[in-house]
Amino acid sequence: MSLHPRRHRWRTQWATIVWLTVVWVFLWGDLSVGNVLAGLLIALAVTTGLRMAPIDFHGRFRPLGFLRLSARFAVDLVKASFEVSLIAIRPRYVPRGAVIGVQLRSHSDLYLTLTAELCSLVPGSLVVEAHRLTGMLYLHVLDVRQSGGIEAARQSVLDQEERVLRAFASDEELVAAGLVGVRT
Amino acid sequence: MTQDQWTTVADVASAVCLLGGAFLAFAAGVGVLRFPDLLARMHAGTKPQVLGLALVLIGLALRLRSGGAVWALVLVAVFQMLTAPVAAHMVGRAGYRTGKVRSDLLVVDELTDDQERAQVRDQGRPDDDDPRD
Amino acid sequence: MTAVVWVCGVLLTVGAVLAVVRAEKGPSMLDRTIALDIVVTTMIAAVALYAAIERRTDVVPVLVVLSLVGFVGSVTIARFAAVEPEGEGRVRTREEIAAQEAERMDAEDEAEGSRRTGRREGYDEHHGGGAEGEVRG
Q1: Which of A62-71, B27-36, B83-92, C117-126 has the lowest mean pLDDT?
Q2: Range 79-118 of C in CB contact (< 8 A) with B
C-alpha cells in the first residue's frame, strides 16, 4: 500500500467518489456521458474540498449473508411499522418503555453504525446513544411487553449485529467476535 | 395480458400503496400526539414515517412508469432510511443532555445509571481521562 | 381513483394537524422538532400523491429537497438544543401576562423611586450643595 499521503487518500476515497457519482446520476435520471462526467467532477470537488475521516473497511462482501440480512430487514421493517401504528391507534393503551445498554462484539465503527441504523428502523427499538470507543449501544425500547421482555430485546440487537457481521465481515473479524462455526 | 391490463394492474397496485403510506403517516401523527414521553414520540416519528414514505414512493413509481424520475425516488427513499435513525439519535441524545428524559416513566434506565456511575468514577479520580468523550 | 385520492388526502391532513397540535403542546423544543419533522414528511407524501394523480415528473426534485430539509432541520435543532428553564415551554395566558406586567411595573417604580432619592443625596455629597441657582424640587 502506498504511503505517499496524497496517493493514499485517493485510494481510500475512491468508494466515496463512486457513490457520489451514482447519487448524481440518479438525481438526473438518465445515464448519459455528460451526467457521469459532471457527477465525477462534483464528487472530486466535494471529496477534496470537504475532508472527512476515511472509513476503514477490512471486510469481505458475502452475498449469501447480505441477502439474508436484506430479506430479514425488509420483513422486520414492515412488521415494525404496523406494530407501532397499532400501539398508536389502540385506544387507552399506554406503552411502557425502557432504555437498555448492549455491549457489541465487533470493534469497528462501520459495523457499529450499520447495526445502530438497522436497529433503529426495525421493531420496537431506537438507538439513543452510541459510545464508539467501548462499543456500547443504548437503545430505547418502546413497549417492553411487546418485545417479550428486556433480555429478549437485548438478544435481538445481538442477533442483528451477527447478521451484519455475517454479511460484511472478514474472517479475522468473525473470529474476533466469536462467531465462527455456528452457521455458514 | 395486454398493455391496457398491465396499466390497470399498475394503477391498482399504486392506489393500494398510496393508501398504505397515507395510513402510516396518519398513524405517525396520532402516535406523536398520544405517546407519554419524548423517547416514545421519537418512535412514532421514525418508523411509520419511513415505511409510509417508502410505500407512497413505490405507489408514485408504479404510476409514473417512466425511467428518469423513478431513480430520484429511489434516492429519496434511501436518504430517508439512512437519515431518519441519525436524526432520532441526535434528538434522543439532546434529550438526555438537557434533562428532558424522565427516568420514572421508564421500566429500566441503564443509560442514566451508567452515566451516573461514570460521573462518580470521574469525580473520584480527577486525573484520569474519561475514555468515552 | 377519486375515492383513493380523497381517503389519502384526509388521512394525511388529519395526521399533519395532529402533529401540529403536538408542536403546540410539546413541553420542550425537541418534541416540537419531532412533530415538525413529521409535518415535513407528510408534505413529501402529499406532493408525491399529487404527482401520482397528475402523472407529473417535474415535481420529483421537490421531494428530494424536502427530505433533505427535514433531516437538516431536525439535526440542527437537536445539535443546538439547550437546557430550557421550567415553564418556558408553554404560552402564557392573558391573566398571567397581566400579572407579570403589573409585577414588572411595580418593580420598576420602586427602582426609579430609590434611584431618585439616591441621586439627590449623592448630589449633595459629591457637590457640597450644588449650584446656588439650581431649582431643587
Answers
A1: C117-126
A2: 79, 81-84
C63 Cβ under 8 Å from any chain B Cβ: yes
How does residue B129 score in pLDDT terms, banded at 50, 70 and 90? very low
Instruction: Tell which B residues from 74 to 93 touch C, by Cβ distance under 8 Å.
Output: 75-76, 79-80, 83-84, 86-87, 90-91, 93
Contacts of B28 in chain A (CB under 8 A): 85, 88
Residue type, A143: D
Closest alpha carbon to B25 in C11, C118, A19: C11
Residues of A in contact with B111 (CB under 8 A): 99, 101, 128-129, 138
Assigned domain for B59 exists: yes
Domains: count for chain B = 1
Q: What pLDDT is attached to residue C10? A: 95
Touching check for B67 and chain C: CB below 8 Å? no
ipTM of model: 0.80
**C72 and C48, same structural domain?**
yes
* Residues in chain C closer than 8 A to B29 (CB atoms): 14-19, 38, 42
Question: Is A120 in contact with B88 (Cβ distance < 8 A)?
Answer: yes
| Residues C33 and C77 placed together within one structural domain of the fold | yes
- CA-CA-CA-CA torsion sign (A64, A68, A74, A75): positive
In a domain, C41, yes or no: yes
The pLDDT tens digits for B10-52 are: 888 999 999 999 999 998 898 888 888 888 888 888 877 788 8
* Residue A176, number of CB atoms within 10 A of its CB: 16
A26-49 residues labelled b (16+ CB within 10 A) or e (exposed): bbbbeeeeebeeebbeebeeebee
